[in-house]
Write a structure and sequence with these properties.
There is one protein chain. The protein has 293 residues and is mainly α. Helix content is 66%, strand content 1%. It is built from eleven helices and two strands. It has a two-stranded antiparallel ribbon. Helix 1 runs parallel beside helix 7, helix 2 runs parallel beside helix 7 and helix 7 packs across helix 9. The longest helix is centred in the middle third of the chain and has 35 residues. The two termini are 35 Å apart.
Length: 293
């Protein structure tokens, strides 16, 4: 390695870390991001209040008992233990609210900069296109984690205020301590955040195809809705296991005793596959793209 290369490497690292810090700051300070966080934090509150009102009037959750369309499988247990509100809120937000928020951030990652005319300035040496793309994806992954934790923490606080807390019964019927249940809730939040990596990579790829942030966001959310619809059509059962959303709700298997790992691992493998495929596609497109803005 030459003296110039040895000097340039630390400079690139420092510049990349500075770029990542800047991207995180810009993303999390936007009013749009704060509005998304507020909506996500409000969902557990609405669920908790609705369950509290419904049970206080004596009608029971869902009004129709089991199979009556009362909501996620955990919802019937909320009144017995507020910790179940965490699982219910994550199950309620994962199919649409969380991935939609991630799609908005990922879709705007590159296209938004191009639309604002700032993309060329971000590509000055020593950053380069590859480092910028990795920084954008790392920022989106951080958003996935923070958004999921906001839902979980909001649900935990709401559940603690409205319902009792204590030992809880797993899906398998065994009893675990509150501390163990809290640990599993944290693991579930991490799994849910990891479940969003596929849609994040897809959104980033879409973002490299256009210079319109709104178009990229709309396309990403549209693809999300399309896949969700296709995943409900019985005739497509042969290809449904390959949809990024097919195993999303497998996080419930962490509430079994012992934990059932098969679907959890399949979900993580699918997310890694989508991240690799669409991340590579985004890199191929972005490194060859003519940047004019």
């Amino acid at each position: 390695m030459s003296q110039a290369e040895a000097t340039a490497s630390p400079v690139r690292l420092v510049w990349t870390l500075g770029l990542l810090r800047s991207e995180l700051g810009v993303t999390f300070r936007r009013w749009r991001t704060r509005a998304l966080f507020a909506v996500l934090a409000g969902v557990p509150v609405l669920i908790g209040v609705a369950v509290k009102i419904e049970t206080s009037d004596g009608s029971g959750i869902g009004g129709g008992g089991a199979g009556g369309g009362g909501g996620p499988a955990f919802i019937a247990q909320i009144t017995n233990n507020g910790l179940f509100l965490v699982f219910t809120a994550l199950a309620a937000t994962l199919p649409f609210f969380l991935p939609m928020a991630v799609g908005v951030v990922a879709g705007d990652a590159i296209a938004g900069e191009a639309n604002a005319g700032t993309l060329r300035y971000l590509l000055v040496a020593p950053a380069g296109r590859t480092r910028l793309l990795l920084t954008k994806y790392a920022t989106t992954m951080a958003f996935c984690l923070v958004a999921t934790l906001i839902v979980a923490v909001s649900a935990l606080i709401t559940g603690a205020i409205l319902f009792p807390l204590g030992d809880l019964v797993t899906i398998s019927g065994t009893q675990i301590s509150f501390a163990e249940g809290l640990w599993r809730a944290f693991l579930i939040a991490l799994v849910v955040a990891a479940s969003l990596l596929g849609i994040a990579a897809l959104g980033l790829f879409v973002s490299t195809l256009t210079s319109s942030g709104i178009a990229a966001m709309a396309t990403t959310v549209g693809l999300l809705i399309t896949v969700q619809i296709l995943d409900q059509i019985p005739q497509l059962h042969a290809i449904q296991p390959y949809f990024f959303s097919h195993h999303w709700l497998s996080f419930a298997d962490l509430m079994r005793e012992p934990v059932y790992w098969d679907d959890l691992i399949k979900n993580l493998e699918i997310q890694a596959l989508y991240a690799a495929v669409f991340g590579s596609a985004a890199w191929a497109r972005f490194t060859a793209k003519d940047i004019t803005a």
